[in-house]
């Protein structure tokens, strides 16, 4: 826990004053009580029940003051809370490396099956969009709640040469945030000439997120790590999934065989920069498990949240007043007896 206004904690020292005043008043009251002439009158003045009960309202009131001071210091903590994600963009690598059969029946078929299961299990009010990327990136399905349209779009994936992971991430950002007046062609080929919006807190965009799956490393287009920094500046979280075994091979493609290995370092960096999370899957079963885990993780997120003590202060104050009103008539009745 940390404090957003720690200077207010010095006010806790002032709480010793009401304690001192209360102690002085109580000792003075006891001296006055000794002037009564009989034990019966002393007992009546003390009131019914244990003597410590009379101190409870004052103690609760003092705790209310302490809670109020703590509230002014604005404590905050990292809490795991439900997210407000209502739009997701799934960015899927459709480069030729997805032909590799180190994952049965092939990487692309296993990925399609996992994405289908993920989409089918999402809450009905979550809107989903689909982006594919290889040498370029394209939107295969705009953000929609129509699950049939999404499943049909997944079946339309077409493999292409090269891997432009950064372009896929840029296209996903644009699809998630259509309000962005960003020229994607300029962002890809002349990124220094693009004027981006004023940066916001990383992970602060609560209305959506991106899930990016890739099985290889970038061969063209912008650096995905640099694009991830742009996503972080927009508050967009990116969850990444690395798919495939370390020794994946595309056999017999145009007379050559190619080794295709996941670029885990870049995917981890993208997730870290945007305050998302990275998952690795080396089989179809692990990929489905990763997407299931994603579904649970995206429903909850850990973020710094201000913890309010104001309600506690109010409840303590009301408790003190209630007890004082409840016990005071009983003491008055005992004194007049």
Task: Please characterize this protein's 3D structure.
- With 337 residues, the chain is of the alpha/beta class.
- The protein has two domains: 2-73 and 307-336, no CATH class; 81-305, Rossmann fold (3-Layer(aba) Sandwich), CATH 3.40.50.
- Helices cover 44% and strands 20% of the residues.
- The chain has a six-stranded mixed beta sheet, sandwiched between helices.
- The radius of gyration is 32 Å and the shape is elongated.
- The model has no long low-confidence stretch (mean pLDDT 78).
Strand content: 15-25%
Low-confidence stretches: none
Helical segment tally?
Answer: 11
Extended strand count? 11
Strand order of the largest sheet: 5-4-3-6-7-10
The portion of residues assigned to helices is 40-55%
- Within CATH, the superfamily of the largest domain carries the name von Willebrand factor, type A domain
What value does the average pLDDT take?
Answer: 78
Using the alpha-carbon principal axes, give the shape: elongated
Q: Main beta sheet: strand number and arrangement?
A: 6 strands, mixed
Q: What gyration radius follows from the Cα positions, in whole Å?
A: 32 Å
Structural class: alpha/beta
The helix/strand order is EHHHEEHEEHHHEHEEEHEHEH
| Terminal CA distance | 53 Å
CATH arch. level architecture of the largest domain = 3-Layer(aba) Sandwich
User: What's the CATH first level of the largest domain?
Assistant: Alpha Beta
CATH topology of the largest domain: Rossmann fold
